[in-house]
Every structure is written in structure tokens, then in C-alpha cells.
């Protein structure tokens, strides 16, 4: 019986594809690199095996300067470039009486909390775990294990809802269930295709 749900943020609750693309290309511009197509960036973001600093910025790891540039663009533009997917708030309102909710995102905490508050989503979640809260973000299981430790629950009582390979791999490594949705950054044939279908799956898991 599922009692706890972990939600991914980008591509699951919110459509941040435009600001993620523009933020990365803003950093690339600062580095003198040509912009990448949105499709290329979003596919790369969701590839759990890709060396992302090397792919996006031709560096072995993200530098403080690159992170600051990304945050600079994100903070300045998130109010006009990020939206909540249709039906998500209604879903959260309906299921919050049945489950304890949490969120795990590979976004940095400052950016994530800012956007969650702006979109009136933050208060739905008992705990929000971000990339800089753990040693290794998704696809590693660190975020999920941190949330499990917070709730002090069994692994068969909690599931992760996400839209990409990073989420699926993190759930697998943590040993918990996973529900894959298909309205975000991915395009799977075997995924949940609507918020209504997700609601039914979640309620059936109780």
C-alpha cells in the first residue's frame, strides 16, 4: 500500500523546457559557444549517462561562474517562461488527503524554491530535496533515500512520479516503485499520458 509520493518537478509538475533551454544557452553565449536547439538540450538533460558539463559547456564539471550565470537568467525570467501543467494543482489538491507528498528535483535549491513559491506549489510538499542537498542527484538514489529517511517509511510504501530516464533510474537504484508520465520532456509509449490517468493510478495504489 502506497502512503508516500515523491514527485519530480521539471517535466512532471511544471513545463520549464523553455527556461532550461534559454538558461543553458545563456551560459553557452557567455562562454562563446553557439546555442543548442531546445530538443537537443531537453534530451540531454534527461540522459542519465551523459556527461552534462562536458556536453553543454565543454568543461569537466560545472564552475561557480556557470552556475551563477544559469541562476541569473533563471531568476530574471522564470515568471514568464515557466508554467504549471494543466490539472496538476487539482491533482495535488485531491490526493493530499490520502498521501504524504514530497519533491525531488535536480534543480538547485534557490531556483527550485523560488519557482515553487511563485507557482503556489511549495506548500503541497512536506520535504523538498534539491541537487545541492545531496552528494549525488538523480539518477543516483541519494534524494530518494533522504526522503525515505525523513518519512521513516518502508520502500514498498513510497513511489516516485517522474517523466524521464533520470527519475526511472533513481527509483530503480533506490528500490522503490516508479510511475512514468508522458506530458513532459519525454515521449514514451508505455507511460501515463494524462493527469487524470495518473490520479487514478495513484488512488488505486492506496
Describe the protein's architecture and organization.
Helix 1 packs antiparallel against helix 4 and helix 4 runs parallel beside helix 6. The longest helix is centred in the middle third of the chain and has 18 residues. Helix 6 links the parallel strand 4 and strand 5. The chain is of the alpha/beta class and 206 residues long. The chain contains nine helices and seven strands. The protein has two domains: 134 residues, HAD superfamily/HAD-like (Rossmann fold); 65 residues, DNA polymerase, domain 1, CATH 1.10.150. The model has no long low-confidence stretch (mean pLDDT 95). The strands form two sheets. A five-stranded parallel sheet has the order 5-4-1-6-7, with helices on one face. Strands 2-3 form a two-stranded antiparallel ribbon. It is globular, with a radius of gyration of 16 Å. Helix content is 46%, strand content 12%.
Q: If strands are numbered along the chain, what order do they take across the biggest sheet?
A: 5-4-1-6-7
Q: Give the end-to-end Cα distance, rounded to a whole number of Å.
A: 5 Å
Q: Element order, helices and strands? A: EEHHHHEHEHEHEHEH
Rg (CA only): 16 Å
Please report the first level of CATH classification, the CATH class of the largest domain. Alpha Beta
Indicate the CATH architecture of the largest domain.
Answer: 3-Layer(aba) Sandwich
What fold name stands as the CATH topology of the largest domain? Rossmann fold
What is the number of domains? 2
Low-pLDDT ranges: none
Instruction: Classify the secondary structure makeup into a structural class.
Output: alpha/beta
What is the overall number of helices?
9
How would you name the CATH homologous superfamily of the largest domain?
Answer: HAD superfamily/HAD-like
Q: What is the overall pLDDT average? A: 95
* Biggest sheet architecture: 5 strands, parallel
Per the principal axes of the C-alpha atoms, what is the gross shape? globular
Amino acid at each position: 500500500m502506497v502512503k508516500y509520493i515523491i514527485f519530480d518537478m521539471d517535466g512532471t509538475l511544471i513545463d520549464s523546457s523553455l527556461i532550461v533551454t534559454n538558461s543553458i544557452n545563456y551560459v553557452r553565449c557567455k562562454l562563446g559557444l553557439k546555442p543548442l536547439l531546445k530538443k537537443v538540450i531537453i534530451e540531454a538533460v534527461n540522459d542519465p549517462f551523459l556527461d552534462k558539463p562536458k556536453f553543454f559547456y565543454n568543461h569537466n564539471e560545472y564552475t561557480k561562474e556557470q552556475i551563477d550565470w544559469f541562476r541569473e537568467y533563471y531568476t530574471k525570467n522564470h515568471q514568464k517562461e515557466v508554467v504549471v501543467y494543466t490539472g496538476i494543482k487539482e491533482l495535488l489538491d485531491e490526493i493530499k488527503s490520502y498521501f504524504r507528498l514530497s519533491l525531488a528535483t535536480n534543480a538547485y535549491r534557490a531556483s527550485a524554491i523560488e519557482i515553487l513559491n511563485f507557482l503556489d506549489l511549495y506548500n503541497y510538499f512536506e520535504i523538498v530535496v534539491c541537487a545541492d542537498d545531496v552528494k549525488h542527484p538523480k539518477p543516483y538514489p541519494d534524494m530518494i533515500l533522504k526522503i525515505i529517511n525523513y518519512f521513516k517509511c518502508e520502500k514498498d510504501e513510497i513511489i516516485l512520479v517522474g517523466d524521464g530516464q533520470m527519475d526511472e533510474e533513481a527509483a530503480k537504484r533506490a528500490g522503490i516503485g516508479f510511475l512514468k508520465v508522458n506530458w513532459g520532456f519525454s515521449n514514451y509509449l508505455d507511460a501515463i499520458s494524462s493527469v487524470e490517468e495518473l490520479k487514478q493510478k495513484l488512488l488505486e495504489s492506496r
